[in-house]
């Protein structure tokens, strides 16, 4: 089929929209993913009381989840490049859903660490497969927006969790809550296997939409070895960005309920509304961040300028988190945390597009895997730091100092390593 100019295809009213159905599936899976991973953070006070855990015991359980996430991320990045997004996502989903339900059978810190490890292996496949799907289904100018939408599923999952889990726990117990939420999510797997194909293999996509999806210049279809990926600075720019900033999101996810309990005296029955507000605002941030850079590109900005300008705004917006520990009013603290989490999600929507902007499609999953592993390693180290600070100091002040600083550091390093966002692997 003859290639169609990007502007010509984009202007055509006949271009279909099935690619947004794919985004909806990715959004739903990411929401489920975050319900499953956030539940232990929501239940931290309950489990600490029942099992007598210390701050460092909980931090160790989080550490093992992130260790598995680090291992699984780099493995799934390669697996997804080899077998594709459809099969890769299905395998990951089955692993993490099984692990999630097994939480209901855990009776000790060691058993929780084991099922969290298995959960981390499965959940690590979510973003490599999701970004791979976006790369297959969207031209570059729409990828940040599409990524922002499906990444917003993380916040929807985080919103759903404090709404439904306390009810399930208070009605049926925390063990049943894990089983019920896991079993109910299996309907997604049926929909994914029924609907997802590559654009040219799908019966739901028009020729015009395929032309629009393929409107970027052709890139290589050859497999790119890791040895080559690790030699280019663009890989390290993405990995450093993930290493420094992913741990902050993990901190918000796994420790915000604990912060609200310790600093503002809330409990399982009362911290739901603040958490809902925090993650609803985060959702808006994820979509707005992807929309902003895509809008700037539509207005004629270079991809380099659009992505980095948006990320700079996000990095600045996180800095008020410095003061969250010292605010006495609950809702002022919630507003500060909401701004920081929204800024992180907007940042993440753009950071995730960098591999697709600079690498050929065949390498995207592997680069995402390398970066995700770096982010998980950063999360492991930060979890241990948080546990030690809370055990010895008993305050989130020093934790929030780190959280407010690393985005500006990360953006500086990304720009130094990747000043123009050229193609990382030019044809040889």
From TrEMBL:
InterPro entries: MFS, MFS_dom, MFS_Na/Anion_cotransporter, MFS_trans_sf, Sugar_P_transporter. This is MFS transporter. Coiled coil: none annotated. The keyword Membrane applies. It is found in: Membrane. Gene3D superfamilies: MFS general substrate transporter like domains (1.20.1250.20). The chain crosses the membrane at residues 18-35, 56-76, 149-170, 176-196, 236-256, 276-297, 309-327, 333-352, 364-386, 398-418. It comes from Sphingomonas caseinilyticus.
